[in-house]
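Q: What does the assembled structure look like for these inputs?
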Amino acid sequence: MAKEITGRKENYSQWYNDLVVKAGLADNSSVRGCMVIKPYGHAIWENMKNVLDQKFKATGHSNAYFPLFIPKSFFSREASHVEGFAKECAVVTHYRLKNDPDGNGVIVDEDAKLEEELIVRPTSETIIWNTYKGWIQSYRDLPLLINQWANVVRWEMRTRLFLRTTEFLWQEGHTAHATEKEAMEEAMKMIGVYADFAENYLAIPVIKGTKSANERFAGAIDTYSIEALMQDGKALQSGTSHFLGQNFAKAFDVKFASKEGSLDYVWATSWGVSTRLMGALIMAHSDDNGLVLPPKIAPVHVVIVPIYQKSEQLSLLTEKILPLKKELEALGLVVDFDDRDHVKPGFKFAEHELKGVPVRIAIGPRDLENNTLEIARRDTLEKCTIAFNEAPGYVKNLLEDIQSNIFNKALKFRDQNTYKTDDYEEFKRLLDEKPGFILAHWDGTTETELRIKEETKATIRCIPFDAAPEEGKCILTGKPSSRRVLFARAY
Amino acid sequence: MAKEITGRKENYSQWYNDLVVKAGLADNSSVRGCMVIKPYGHAIWENMKNVLDQKFKATGHSNAYFPLFIPKSFFSREASHVEGFAKECAVVTHYRLKNDPDGNGVIVDEDAKLEEELIVRPTSETIIWNTYKGWIQSYRDLPLLINQWANVVRWEMRTRLFLRTTEFLWQEGHTAHATEKEAMEEAMKMIGVYADFAENYLAIPVIKGTKSANERFAGAIDTYSIEALMQDGKALQSGTSHFLGQNFAKAFDVKFASKEGSLDYVWATSWGVSTRLMGALIMAHSDDNGLVLPPKIAPVHVVIVPIYQKSEQLSLLTEKILPLKKELEALGLVVDFDDRDHVKPGFKFAEHELKGVPVRIAIGPRDLENNTLEIARRDTLEKCTIAFNEAPGYVKNLLEDIQSNIFNKALKFRDQNTYKTDDYEEFKRLLDEKPGFILAHWDGTTETELRIKEETKATIRCIPFDAAPEEGKCILTGKPSSRRVLFARAY
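A:
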């Protein structure tokens, strides 16, 4: 198989795009900025969804579904929200087409113009809070803990598969609480759920923290995020959780009768992750041979490739392989027996490497004689030969080892590419020469943040939760700062 | 709990709507024709999705995701498809809003007009076949067996929750094959999957058959459907599968190199079920007390209600109930212990009946003394008292019994409301006085079908696969007919 993947060092961005397309994860579509998620990519996304959905349910959330369309006027209700979300969006203005009298297909029927335009949801706070108004009367209706799996649309000018597309898939949690404290705890709990998922399933180490005011979600009091470091030294925001205060409750007039009898506005959170996580997964671990997938999220754990010349050999191998496949499946693994006859083993090896299957087993006639098989691990590309009957136990352990090795490798990479500096010139030099995370002091103003961004293209990724108090001076202005914040250039 | 559900006999349509809203399944939204699927309704839909998704995968299909938007011109490629689908639809014409200079919120930015309008998908054959063109080159790329779970939009003038909404959720399978025979077999296989699902999970007996030319999917050579009978004697089409021939392959120029070296157009199918199934489920089984859910699809199987006066009694009951709950959960059941303190048992009973929980267990202080508990089944509303330690086995069997009883009841209802007639006057009288399925002869012409529809509001639901050859005369025209077809008034 001619993989034709550009090397990471040659052109990282092209490497990413090659990988996404050639590993069968996604394709550009005929619709500007919209992608097609192909079966293999979708299988990975389904695994992500399943794990997250279980975690949401385990923390007391239920799924629901709200309309795709939002009346235009809803956006104007919350002042900062409209600025952030109601601008670059898909606008539905008509509800009918008719035959072109000139015979050129169909045209918009101008008689079918909507009285009020509908916006294809870029996020659903407004339509959901408009609905919650009817659902919440008393403290007994709270907390309301709801999640939605949905497609959303944001009209992006520059798009990249998974990382930034006009339409993308995501989940958005929207919760309502009786007290400020409870809502703040919820927002914090969910960023914790995301961090746990990123680290223990996607094997991506993340830094949890608070966004600066400038990077806050439009309409939030506070935004928390998890930030991951990609192999090119750029950061990728991988999930956010927002404490919304009473902003949306006030905008949509959602009040509840408290236990004490007062009528109060409800407190809110929202939180989401999207198909962008696919981008994070790919860029965090993969190499020039293709994808490297953590076993906990891989659609196929083990592929078995028979090595043979003649069809009688294949029959003998198949007799041996099928019971092994069953044994591995009994351990809860997804196993692919690749007995395609029209491609050579070398082609298969390259293809399964490209697709990131964590473990490859090869068996040939000599193995039959010796009662052995060859096992190759995708993460390190190491191979070994072991006794046939030891395979199931070996593979089971190997998958666990691969999962933790991938995480540790990414963690080591991040540690090696996280710098501290107190000097603005070094800060700039690092960004150009050794891109990564930079922990530096900042005076806390949006003005300074924007000037640093303009001069260096680096942004404040977050103020890490675990940042130790430390007296220092802002790297740009020299004004006092009480802790370091996390800078990086970002996707 | 004041259920306030209109009786079925009083006003069937109002009964349905009351039930959907009051059992917490769905609500109308502020967006015309779009519904909000509430958590309890969504939980039922998720159960349906999970079963169907497993069945699709077990028959070799993979999930993928295609864009929400379809360029307007795509619809004109297939002549009959455009007539059927590109008319009543949501049209995106602009991609940006801007602040109203008069200060009234946001308005459409006329500078951001799309060159070609985008249609919010009403169904995805066109965008998918446009994509398949890039995926299919040789017979080795076939069959291509793909399913998509998605939202679709059809601009409906008269909407009803679940049954007909502007936006709805569904799955759409789209497969590509090398031969006509294989595609026809696929279309037939999938209508079989739907029938199996309807009967063995939803407990709804269905009739499989072929649609008349007039009722065919726009762009199909043949459409198969499953037809169910609701309690008001109206039919509900519950799933369709289409043999598309080479229509879409020709429209989007999708050819493959055959094994023999020729370049041929690909053969296609598509098939789908939607949140309409929720309507079928509700209307097939429920009664004036609320929902009746088949256990295989119920979000909660068993609810346990403690009967007590004083809080010490609740403590004692709880001690006894928690281990029972665990035991039932170990059997794979979802169990709700309803220990809410602010509502009375009677209120709880009514609420769980409304929500259709298949089994209710009640335990009071006297049961503690006698080591008993009371079990009520939702389908028949029968109650019995049994020994406490027999509960798990009893409940397990009871759930199986409820599942088959619900199906048998619906089957009996259908049998009792299926008529044969050879007389047009009787045909009309039956429709008015004893609505149900009518098996009658038809001359096979669209003209006759449309006249019958106009005169009686009945349509041909399908030509049942198992209709025995039988010489007869068309009920309207007296022209020869070789088998009876299935008529009914329908949703």
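Chain B has a mean pLDDT of 96.
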